[in-house]
Design brief:
Pfam families: MFS_1 (PF07690). Keywords: Cell membrane, Membrane, Transmembrane, Transmembrane helix, Transport. It comes from Terrabacter terrae. Its main location: membrane. It is globular and about 60 Å long. It has one domain: Growth Hormone, Chain: A (Up-down Bundle). It starts with 45 loop residues before the first helix and ends in a 24-residue tail after the last helix. Helix 12 crosses helix 17 and helix 17 packs antiparallel against helix 18. Helix content is 72%, strand content 0%. By secondary structure, the chain is mostly helical.
């Protein structure tokens, strides 16, 4: 865990705490992002932070336009009967997003955050148009390749930009707001498209929302969002090692391969977070592609399916407003482990019940478990990764996490074709429980909380890092 100048590794105040020199002006940034008065902190950067929350809501809405309607398009419009073929759109989405997450981290360090964000929105523009006009399922697959690329660039960038702005003290809270905005928008859009499809058909009306989201996303990202790479460099300039020395070997510059191997396999907390992220999105891929088919098979209407499709991401999204900040106070490890176990229990309930009310309850439990895990995993990555290579670590983590979409689609499709839909849900429930156990055994607590009587971290220009 890094701390800002003004405290030593044991959090004892230093003589110039609260009035440190404005070193930002002494280290100009080629982006023009640094300069006199640049500070870290949520309160100090609130306008840009709120803007980025709004932008990520639009990113989530682009994903939400598919949650209810596209699985039903495959079944009712294109006549797909095999689960594996029907889930191909999630498979390609997951692969495209995972790969883009990884390279987006490198691009952000090389070119800056804002250019990657704008480019991601430009890639999103054709997606709703392809879904509206698709004459074959192959067009839907192509749309989801573009959607995956776009999501990998835009969502990754908003995550890193918020981490840049707030500094170490409020990292969990920042991730809670980021993920809450994105997944609340997924829920609202899934619900809205369900009702629109019930009234006007599966195409084209539900995808008009996506056209509006893309236009707003391009406009805000181009005209209003500011570059934040300078904030990361500001934090890196004052980065102080943990008192326990745990991350001493990870300070300074690492190659891309070293960042990837530390995040994926070698560093215990980073690698435990990466596998938990993969399994979390594995069960999300199941929920996206299989749950609408399971509910339709029970005779539920499209609007009812839309409600169930919205409950899970709604609880997930709104719950992160609480869980992100809570992890700053109680720590990361046990929130992640218990959240994975709660998800496993919810999936088991979905596999055995057969009514709207019980499915709604289980979807809410699944959302609650995911809310405990999602922002906390990102905060844990931010705790361990040095600011100099944090964007690449986030990219590597998100590569594994969003590969879970592809793994979930493939696994669920194969098991469902062989043994039925409910068997697929059981298999994913078991894997989710196992992932929680891995976190409990392998991960250490990453959030180095201040000791009693310590002073708040301060920005490079003075003031509390709130």
């Amino acid at each position: 865990m890094s701390v800002n100048p003004g405290t030593d590794p044991n959090h004892r105040p230093q003589p110039n705490a609260g009035r440190g020199p404005d070193v930002s002006s002494a280290h100009p940034d080629p982006d023009g992002a640094t300069g006199p008065g640049l500070v870290l902190g949520l309160r100090q950067n609130l306008p840009q932070f709120v803007l980025l929350v709004a932008v990520n809501a639009l990113v989530g809405g682009m994903l939400g336009q598919e949650r209810t309607v596209v699985p039903l398009l495959g079944k009712d419009v294109f006549g797909l009967t095999g689960y594996t073929a029907g889930l191909a759109f999630i498979l390609v989405f997951g692969l495209a997003k995972a790969a883009t997450n990884y390279v987006a981290g490198t691009w952000m360090d090389r070119f800056g955050r804002k250019p990657v964000l704008v480019a991601g929105w430009l890639v999103a523009i054709p997606v709703p148009l392809l879904l509206i006009w698709a004459p074959t399922w192959g067009w839907v697959i192509a749309a989801n390749v573009l959607l995956g690329i776009s999501q990998g660039m835009t969502w990754s960038t908003t995550v890193v930009m918020k981490i840049d702005l707030v500094g170490p003290a409020r990292r969990g809270l920042a991730m809670g707001f980021n993920e809450a905005a994105g997944y609340a928008a997924v829920a609202v859009t899934a619900l809205a498209t369900g009702f629109i499809a019930q009234a006007h058909g599966l195409r084209p009306a539900p995808f008009f929302l996506g056209i509006a989201y893309a236009a707003l996303g391009v406009g805000l990202s181009t005209l209003a969002v500011k570059e934040t790479r300078g904030h990361a460099r500001l934090e890196a300039a004052g980065h102080v090692a943990r008192a326990d020395g745990r991350h001493d070997h990870l300070h300074g510059g690492l190659t891309n391969w070293q960042v990837f191997t530390q995040t994926s396999f070698r560093e215990p907390a980073l690698s435990a977070a990466s596998q938990a992220g993969l399994v979390n999105n594995l069960n999300d891929g199941l929920a996206w592609g299989v749950f609408p088919i399971l509910f339709a098979g029970a005779g539920l209407s499209v609007s009812s399916i839309g409600i169930l499709a919205a409950i899970y991401p709604a609880v997930w999204g709104l719950g992160q407003l609480v869980t992100g900040g809570l992890s700053d106070r109680v720590g990361r490890k046990w929130m992640i482990a218990s959240g994975m176990i709660l998800q496993a229990v919810a999936l088991a309930v979905i596999a055995v019940v057969d009514s709207f009310a019980l499915w709604a309850l289980a979807a809410a439990l699944l959302g609650a478990g995911t809310a405990m895990v999602y922002p906390t995993l990102l905060a844990a990555i931010g705790d361990v990764a040095h600011p100099a290579w944090r964007a690449r670590a986030v990219g590597a983590y998100r590569l594994w996490r969003d590969a879970g979409f592809a793994a979930g689609a493939l696994l669920a499709g194969i098991v469902a074709d062989a043994l039925g839909v409910r068997a697929a849900v059981w298999v994913v429930a078991a894997l989710t429980a196992l992932s929680g156990i891995v976190v409990a055994v392998r991960m250490y607590e990453t959030h180095h909380r201040p000791t009693a009587g310590s002073t708040p971290a301060v920005s490079r220009t003075g003031g509390s890092n709130g």
